[in-house]
Amino acid sequence: MPLYHPSEEFVSQANVSGMDAYRALYERARDDPEGFWAELAEEHLDWFKKWDRVLDSSQAPFYKWFVGGRTNMTHNCLDRHCKTWRKNKAAIIWEGEPGDQRMLTYRELARLVERFANVLKNRGYKAGDRAIIYMPMIPELPVAMLACARLGITHSVVFGGFSAEALKTRILDLDAGAVITADGGWRRGKIVPLKPAVDEALADCPGVRNVVVYKRAGNEVELVAGRDHWWHDLNAGADDSCPAEELDSEHPLYVLYTSGTTGKPKGIVHATGGYQLQVSMAMRWVFDIKEEDTYWCAADIGWVTGHSYIVYGPLLAGATTVMYEGAPDFPGPDRFWRIVDKYKVNVFYTSPTAVRAFIRSGVEHPEKHDLSSLRLLGSVGEPINPSAWEWYYNVIGGGRCPIVDTWWQTETGSIMISPLPGATPLKPGSGAFPLPGVAADVVDGDGASVAPGSEGYLVVRKPWPSMFRTLWGDPDRFRQTYWSQIPGVYLVGDAARKDKDGYIWVLGRVDDVMNVSGHRLSTAELESSLVRHPSVAEAAVVGIPDELTGQAVAAFVTPKQGVEAGDDLAAELRGWVAKEIGKFARPKQIRFSDALPKTRSGKIMRRLLREIVTTQKVSGDITTLEDLSVIDRLAAGQSED
Ligand code: WT7
Fold it and tell me: Ligand 1 mean position to 261 CA, how many Å?
């Protein structure tokens, strides 16, 4: 396998220059983690009050970082920069799908954030409250997040593709008191309304006292008197200045829901102090961020990638972050390259799914544009296949840009395993090495490191500053799911292999969680949605390999007695899942069968289902199967989306 070395030119300007520099950082962190992080926290962040202790492990796995310290995320993202020449630097360069643009300087962003913080304050919200944010990709989304952070209101951004039902579950789980939303946003030339889903969700959420609606798309919305307000009306009456609350380092900054192995999504809780430190360091080490860079993470802020690397990371770094509202292929498949060319983007971060879609649409699209401003590329969300890596490297990067394949999770908050672009020789498809301060390892079921070349479970042996602190309202599940199977060690949920050179290769999930287009979906969540449909007796869901989306959803459904199975029912079930979870979760394949393969103890054998959808037959061990004839009947009756 070829190794790709960074050019001398890249190495000489890099924030971490050469492997020796990486090793020195890594070893310093390993030998004295607390001293290492404390030094960086003093150097890279402001604190209203310094911490008393760097790490408190007394309640492990409920670790605390920078204990007793006081800080505010928005002070570090905004006020700090506004005291320097950066007040007139572009913080956010935004482009709407229809082609409209806005540029917000650090000072202007600070003004909007403070003003909107006053709106929330005037409505009675304060530190410790929770607000839901359900918005399109417009600048007011980061403004709303930062306004919450300024006051210590814990925010939870719900991806705009989620349905009313998913929104309701999250509002209720958090007992949120406010919803911040918009009339709608633009996607593929059409307005996607958001407000109707809020109205539907709120029918069952009496705790929400105020809904603030930003007017983006101009579609008709209904405002419920006393509860709903236009953003511009409330803003008009608010003051431009609102001091940052001096919050405890451990204050919960946000909760972000992600899928687990049960039907109930997990509320991942992130704290302030440690999160802002590790995200800042990733900007420096992984994205090699420079004052003059134009940086673009083409994710959605509804997922953790957008939280850490569109909003908080770049702003902490005082960088210029690009934000794009719409679809990558609108009005044509070259939209992203048009944006790179137009704003002369230097650092570009996207997902393998997006890269595969670009490959499919053809090289003529990137070739139409001047991409020579790019100096560094990133990948996140799922393993990137070496052929897609090579294409990304050569066609988009012109053979000149290192690719950082960044492994991390909603839970980890920040990038954990990644090449450093001015140091690490790259192997296409590998995330290479853990970042300084990250004790990642590949182990067997007892927690012992596996031999080079063998597969095992990916774990993190030591706490890290941006780690999630708990699951909202469910500390037992936090302990149980992540810290108990191999005691005292964080179990990631991915399989991995370390090669003879120590490079880590992440292979995919080991639990019943799928990864569709880099988004996590749980089989249990999908199955419980399907069986709630009145025509369904039983359902099982598996992930199948998909050329474009990495994995796709395949559902096996047993209809109730007397219900006719066929394309009509399949279409109805797809619509049902879209309504219950979101469009992105719709099953690609649905197969109807009169029974599902089960063990004698009644467990659905998903391994068999996976084999059936990928190879159309079963070759593995079926001796524990209760009814052998079910296998033959299963291969038939498929409906493709
Ligand atoms: C899961 C986390 C973190 C941002 C987006 C996803 C998979 C993520 C990589 C990568 C191989 C990756 C893992 C992980 N994953 N990045 N570079 N190589 N796999 O966040 O929804 O919390 O999903 O995504 O399976 O556990 P998430």
Answer: 15
- CB atoms near residue 378 (< 10 Å): 28
- Other CB atoms within a 10 A radius of the CB of residue 101 amount to 10
Q: How confident is the model at residue 378 (pLDDT cuts 50, 70, 90)?
A: very high
pLDDT by residue (tens digit) across 212-231?
A: 999 999 999 999 999 999 99
Cβ atoms of residues 297 and 321 within 8 Å: yes
Contact 568, 554 (CB under 8 A): no
Taking Cα atoms as reference points, which of 119, 142, 113, 52 lies closest to residue 244?
113
Kindly state if the Cβ of 410 falls inside 6 Å of ligand 1: yes
Q: How far is the CA of 550 from the centre of ligand 1 (A)?
A: 12
Q: Quote the tokens at residue 231.
A: 């953003």
The owner of tokens 């920069």 is 81
R_g (Cα) of the chain, nearest Å: 24
User: Does the C-beta of 382 come closer than 6 Å to ligand 1?
Assistant: yes
Residue 515, ligand 1, Cβ within 6 A: yes
For residue 107, the Cα-to-chain-centroid distance in whole angstroms is 28
* Cα 35 to Cα 17: distance, rounded to the nearest angstrom: 22
Is the pTM higher than 0.85? The answer reads yes
How do strand 210-214 and strand 228-230 relate by DSSP bridges? parallel
Q: What is the mean pLDDT of residues 251-267?
A: 90
407 Cβ inside 6 Å of ligand 1 = yes
Question: In this predicted structure, what is the pLDDT of residue 299?
Answer: 95
Domains by residue range for the chain, with CATH = 517-640 (3.30.300.30)
Using a 6 Å cutoff on CB, does residue 506 contact ligand 1? yes
pLDDT bin (cut points 50, 70, 90) of residue 46 is very high
- Cα 403 from chain centre: 19
Decide: 147 and 120 in contact? Cβ < 8 Å: yes
What is the distance, to the nearest Å, from the Cα of residue 561 to the centroid of all Cα atoms in its chain?
A: 41
Strands (E), 402-512: 403-406, 440-443, 455-460, 470-471, 490-498, 504-509
Residue 619 CB neighbour total at 10 angstroms: 7
Q: Tell me: the pLDDT tens digits for 589-625?
A: 999 988 888 776 667 777 788 888 877 766 666 666 6
